[in-house]
Amino acid sequence: MKITSLQDLKKIQKSIQETAARQAAERAAQLERERRLAAQKNLFMLAVGAVNPLPDQRKAELRKAQPEPVATQLQRDEQAVLVEAISDGFDASNLLDTDDALSYRRQGIGADVTRRLRKGEWSIQRQIDLHGLRSDAARDALSGFIRDAQKHGIRCVRVVHGKGLSSPGKTPVLKGKVRNWLVQKNEVLAFVQARPIDGGAGALVVLLKPG
């Protein structure tokens, strides 16, 4: 701009002053914005406190495998077999009722129980035939049979031991042993000689405890 008079000089000075004032105002406004942002940041930091980044371990949280269930009932059953082993040396003759059939009832069981067994009032639910087995095999078979029957809620069973007609001297070997074995079984409440229709002298009808 060409200055030709004092008036032109005054116009130039005024323009310079206005520009300087505008720039000063813009700087002041910028400083105010920066101050407010800094104040907001400080307020946030004061609110949340110090923050530390979590370490990145690159590991997944996996559930531990559950242990296999233990067959505790099976273990108890197997232990019971060992504890309740029956002996050939046990003599039950003094525990048997002194009748022709040599019946048996556990202490606390009334005489009416054996009387009802003789009459066939208890329905035979299962049976085992030991006839022809050697003594050891017959003992183990009887023990397992009684235990399994009682476990399944069977109350009345028949045990066939034979009359011993094929034994040396016609002596019934298993007949007496079966009685001795049954007396030793905790599951057995009573037994009587079977009725003729159920095997007579060659079998016993046995009453078991509830399962």
From TrEMBL:
SMART domains: SMR (SM00463). PROSITE patterns: SMR (PS50828). It comes from the Bacteria. Residues 128-209 form the Smr domain. Keywords: Coiled coil. Residues 14-41 form a coiled coil. The keyword Coiled coil applies. Gene3D superfamilies: 3.30.1370.110. The keyword Coiled coil applies. PANTHER family: DNA ENDONUCLEASE SMRA-RELATED (PTHR35562:SF2). This is DNA mismatch repair protein MutS. It comes from Rhodoferax koreensis.
